[in-house]
Design goal:
The chain is built from six helices and three strands. The longest helix has 30 residues.
């Protein structure tokens, strides 16, 4: 069986290669419109400039990617703590438990997104932030009953421990 360090190194190198290819092949897709508007200086003469708006699909995907990158960064730090010889067994156990909680949180978010999409919504974004579950759903129309149904689904999937907020995004 390979050593843990070898597996960890291979995993990190693979992740770096995949992310590198992704960033090289599509950097224009990663910048939101607001970033593009802020970095363009005012032209001194009349110039035709076309600013491409990011479709809502890509915005949801961009938010998911950012959240996944943040979790990966946190897991890397926690993995380093678990592997550290300087920390006590209790601190290592706490770091390992936090890693498991991050995995469970990501899994629960993806599962709830899938359940919401199966209810007929175009797309859904579920995020657990600051002790709250935030659900953003693409829908042309919405009602209180639909919002209550989404809240009920979130509480069934993730438990009654956190408050749930629902936001409806119209199609563009």
């Amino acid at each position: 069986m390979p050593k843990k360090q070898t597996v960890w190194l291979f995993t990190m190198v693979s992740l770096t290669a995949v992310l590198g290819v992704y960033y090289v092949t599509g950097p224009e897709k990663l910048l939101p419109v607001s970033t593009l508007e802020e970095t363009v200086p005012e032209p001194t003469e009349d110039v035709d400039v076309a600013v491409e708006e990011t479709p809502d699909d890509e915005v949801f995907e961009m938010i998911r990617l950012e959240a996944e990158e943040e979790r990966s960064r946190q897991k890397e730090e926690l993995t380093a703590k678990v592997a550290s010889a300087d920390l006590s067994a209790e601190e290592k156990d706490e770091a390992y438990t936090t890693m498991q909680q991050l995995d469970e949180q990501a899994s629960s978010e993806r599962m709830l997104e899938t359940v919401i999409k199966s209810k007929g919504y175009e797309d859904a974004l579920v995020r657990m932030m600051e002790g709250e579950i935030r659900i953003t759903v693409k829908a042309d129309s919405h009602s209180t009953e639909e919002a209550n149904e989404l809240i009920r689904l979130a509480k069934e999937e993730m438990g009654d421990k956190m408050p749930v907020s629902v936001e409806f995004e119209p199609f563009k």
